[in-house]
Amino acid sequence: MSINISKTRVMSYSRKTNVLLYGYQLCRTAITRTSCVKDLGVFFDSKLHFHNHVAFLYSECIKLLGLIRSITFRFSSLDCLYVLYLTLVRSKLEYASVAWNSITSTDSAKLERIQKKFASVCFYRYFPHSSYSYTSALERLRLHALSLRRHLLDALFFIQVYRGLKSCSSLLDNSSLRLPTCHVRDSLLLAFVPQKDTVPLLGAPLLPTWWVKISTYLHTERFL
Asked: Which branch of life, at top level (predicted)?
């Protein structure tokens, strides 16, 4: 399979003011240098601030929210509006959040404004006689702040890596946790004997109690 040079880009990741840049070539053709690239739906910038990704998410989701608000103007059911928001808007706001959740508080507040707009629309339409506040609206609509959900998704990802359900060796290397040796061969072909400090039938180390509570909570219908 040949490489399409016109679609190939080079980018240097660094937060230094003066970055040493080198002109790379492929088949004697200079590769175009860029400061931002889109990979699997996420915009990665050279400083990994993800400002471009947040701006893209805000632009797309605020348009979708405006469309939902227009087409549901005569809807009498809150559930329909709720499902449209979860399916079309919040799913985009949380896509691959583990990769870009290192955003600044300013960008986090910018994304939170989208859910605040949705909460205010629902509250004034279906609860007109109640005083509005974002906190009370979240409780009434059974929603959580987007920033909290992203942190919980980070915790869920770490637990899945810790239990061997997902692979991320760099995350394990940076954590001060001792893990049992991971065998490459299919465990179904071998007789399984639980280790002393492992969870029965899982073969993973015991987690702290609060981690187990987070993992259980993240799999409940209320969070999903």
From this structure: Eukaryota
> Could you tell me if 14 and 46 are in contact, meaning their C-beta atoms sit under 8 angstroms apart?
yes
pTM over 0.70: yes
Q: Tell me the per-residue pLDDT of 170-219, one tens digit each, with 9 for 90 and over.
A: 887 777 766 555 555 544 444 444 444 444 444 445 555 555 556 665 66
For residue 93, give every residue at least 6 positions away whose Cβ sits within 8 Å of its Cβ, in sequence order, or none. 57, 61, 111, 114, 115, 146
Q: 71: Cβ–Cβ under 8 A, 6 or more apart, which residues?
A: none
Torsion (CA) 169, 172, 174, 176 in degrees, nearest 10:
-160
What residues does each domain of the chain span?
5-38, 51-151, 164-218
* Interval 80-98: pLDDT, tens: 898 999 999 999 999 999 9
Expressed in angstroms, the distance from the first to the final Cα of the chain is: 41
